Request: fold
Amino acid sequence: MQDAFRDQVLAGKVALIAGASSGINLGIAQRLAEAGAKVMLISRSPERIEAAARTLTEAGHTALGRAADVRDYDAIAAVCQETEDTFGKIDIVVSGAAGNFRAPAAHLSANGFRTVIEIDLIGSFNVLRASFAHLNTPGASLMSITAPGAVRPSTFQVHANAAKAGINQMTRCLAMEWGPAGIRVNAISPGPIADTEGVARLAATPEREQALRNRLALRDYGTKRDIADVALFLSTENARYITGTVIDCDGGSGLGDASEDALTAPPPRG
Ligand code: HXC
Ligand code: NAP
Reply:
């Protein structure tokens, strides 16, 4: 068996990554391409997705970028077909397109709630479902990008947390249905990741950023590379027996508020 982190462990493999024009998903695309995969990148904006693909091709990798909205099933299905026609059957799918903003529920419009559910949850189903007919089986590895808020509730995030909770359960359901065909379905749950749109939106001020950091057991934000390494591992044979799981890569974010530590603890009795 190959080693997950050896160079070119994905040589000859084909990966489709949705939401890949920036941030965490572009980091994943970069990591999979470095490992030898041919990558198809998807996002809404033709300019942003073509620029992302260009970054990879200029680094010597095989990459294409296509504009498609994950809310539009037919558009995603067309890119899946093009991926197979161009690169061959798809071995790896990363479904990570998302939209988010902080909004108190009492001020969140029905359309605001629906929009995030449509991008994050329905969009993820669309990507995984549309890829199904184009997967290289047995052995395909599918993964969605979820968040700790799927399990641990937080304020001003009812839309995103509900969508991500749906993704977690969808992951388990699809793993059961598609496992017999040799398809693994998992999700990755990142904590706050430095230099991303997500953190810019959810921790918009230095004070809030510091407060968030202090609540993490590991007291630090993660990097795009931290998440990309988990995606790489899930893409390889080393993860052949892992399906239906949500892998937390979150500095302990999902555990809850860890801001009380040994220094602030009450003195021992006696
Ligand atoms: C309240 C808002 C809002 C805001 C938009 N809406 N922004 N409501 N506060 N800040 C409402 C609008 O008023 C509208 O409702 C509805 O949402 C749809 O807005 P549109 O702008 O028409 O939607 P669209 O163009 O489809 O854009 C989607 C978007 C946008 C989510 C609103 O922000 C986007 O494209 N984001 C993509 C990038 C992104 O968010 N990246 C960060 C992901 S981080 P009305 O009623 O007025 O019509 C992440 C972290 C997860 O996901 C961790 C926690 C779970
Ligand atoms: P990001 O850079 O904004 O990434 C979101 C991507 O989705 C962009 O490429 C965006 O490109 C694309 N996108 C948005 N709506 C789309 C649609 N309808 N159809 C197709 N593509 C769409 O944000 P990020 O912070 O790196 O987040 C990436 C993933 O990680 C998301 O799933 C997010 O929920 C998750 N996450 C992030 C954090 C964090 O700390 N950042 C924490 C937990 C989970 P276009 O604008 O070109 O469409």
Notes: Residues 14-194+224-248 form a domain with the Rossmann fold fold (CATH 3.40.50.720).
